[in-house]
Amino acid sequence: MRDESIFDLDELNEECGVFGIIGHADAAQLTYYGLHALQHRGQESAGIVTTDGQKFSVQRGTGLVTEVFNNNNIKQLLGSTGIGHVRYSTTGGTGLANAQPLVFKYAKGELAIATKGNLVNAKKLRRDLEELGSIFQTTTDTEVIAHLIARSSAPNIVEAAKEALNQLVGAYALMIMTNDTLIVAEDPHGLRPLSMAKMGEATVFSSETCAFDVIGAEFVRDIEPGEMLVFDAEGMRTTTFAPKAERAICSFEHVYFARPDSNVGGVNVHAARKRMGRILAEEAPVEADVVTGVPDSSTSAAIGFAEATGIPYELGLIKNRYVGRTFIQPSQELREQGVKMKLSAVRGVVAGKRVVMVDDSIVRGTTSRRIVTMLREAGATEVHVRISSPPVKNPCFYGIDTPDREQLIAAQKTVEEIRQEIGADTLTFISVEGMLRAIGRPASERNRGHCIACFTGEYPTVLEDELVLEGKR
Ligand code: SF4
Questions:
Q1: Is 210 annotated in the active site?
Q2: Which residue ranges does the record assign to the Glutamine amidotransferase type-2 domain (predicted)?
């Protein structure tokens, strides 16, 4: 989990964010601003690769976007086309070698690749490639894609990329850049959203639409599942590289990952979270004096819950925004003495009150227990916990950092047992149906076009590497 030792919270974390631009004189700077808007999706490393049509300029490093880039190194990123990446690593490990975009030299020239998501057959592909003589320099899925492209006998990069993508199984939004071509593609289920915008003559791509607003680009549309867009000397064209499968956007984007000002699958995230709060109030009403959300991702759902019940919404919990990567973490002893780093309960708001605490998810249960305790210590007379996602019972194999099933409290315990463990007076999770209704995409699509595997175990793809591990393949 991200900086567990520093933040002391057991959140789910996404692996990456990608951003790309073609046809703008300030490609590097705009990519920098885009990545900054996507920083919540990964803080481990950041990188930008640009091309002036002749050669690449590359800047990558570990740390935050503001730590990796400065005025000097941004100026050295030449050209009007660029791709960028922020990374939070699970698969592939940490470190500069795995920082993206990855850059390769192969028989036909230079290649830069930035991906977001996770392949579920990467281990198998890697093993096959190694048997054919490929030597890997990183432990990322992205390098597997590069080797597949490099080994292809297809006549050009577009056909080679298609051939490579057809061998991948899993979740990915990716950008492949050479000195004369930019390729943007989305996996056949559309698990990891990718959107397109226009900025004058330039075309922009981003994992999340919030990056468009930051740079003043105008949203055009989402990339379709199985779609590949190609930009080269002939202009832009769209093609499909695989038959479109059932759409399965990660439902956790709406619950937690995406910024509230982003739209995912055509639905505003803040509005969806508010509806989750409203539906949670319908599904599990409670008598209380104040509603509070665990900042920041649960604020919208808490507002929805308050609106639906008429119980006032209050800032009962405050986040300390300045806990940074270099923060000296307190020892276990100091922590037990009550030194809290990330969250504080507001005594004046909760003392003597029956509190509804809305949170977006329970992973291991440790965070919920600490927050409930914190609210009681601040004088809350009752703490009613309402969770705006269904119980997380299964790990994610598509690029979200979830612990093993053994550590997922909802996989091990009943709701009543979890309630006892976290010390709440009552505990309710939203239903799967309620969450999907709150997001509100068309009911005609299976699961309204969402992946819900971590709640139900219904994975949208075959989990090839897992089957191998289990000896079933
Ligand atoms: S398993 Fe859960 S976290 Fe992973 S893609 Fe599906 S909905 Fe998202």
A1: no
A2: 16-234
pLDDT digit string (tens) for 62-71?
999 999 999 9
Phi, psi of 364 (to 5 degrees): -90, -20
Instruction: Provide φ and ψ at 183, rounded to 5°.
Output: -120, 135
Among 250, 404, 452, residue to substitute to test ligand 1 (most atoms within 8 Å of Cβ):
250
Give which of 457, 27, 382, 429 is closest to 231, Cα–Cα. 27
- Cβ(191) to ligand 1 under 6 A? yes
Indicate the residue type of 74. Answer: I
β-pairing verdict for 354-359 and 382-387? parallel
What phi, psi does 71 have (nearest 5°)?
Answer: -55, -40
Task: Verify whether ligand 1 is closer than 6 Å to residue 398 (CB atom).
Answer: yes
- Please report the atom of ligand 1 found closest to the CA of residue 392: 2
Residue 327: φ, ψ to 5° = -60, 135
User: Whole-model pTM above 0.90?
Assistant: yes
Angle at 122 between CA 469 and CA 109, to 5 degrees: 160
Over residues 330-360, the pLDDT tens digits come to 666 666 555 566 789 999 999 999 999 999 9
Query: Which domains, from first to last, does the chain contain?
Result: 17-245 (3.60.20.10), 254-472 (3.40.50.2020)
3: pLDDT confidence band, cut at 50, 70 and 90?
Answer: very low
Q: What is the pLDDT of residue 339?
A: 57
Q: Given a cut of 50, is residue 9 above it in pLDDT?
A: no
**How much is the average pLDDT of 140-154?**
92
Residue 400, ligand 1, Cβ within 6 A:
yes
| 210 annotated among ligand-binding-site residues | no
Which whole-number Å values give the CA distances from 91 to 118, 142, 171, 401, 472, in the listed order?
Answer: 8, 11, 13, 9, 22
Catalytic residue (one of 16, 99, 211, 363): 16
Q: Mention every residue, 6+ apart, whose C-beta is less than 8 A from residue 137.
A: 97, 143
The answer, yes or no, to whether any atom of ligand 1 lies below 6 A from the CB of 363, is no
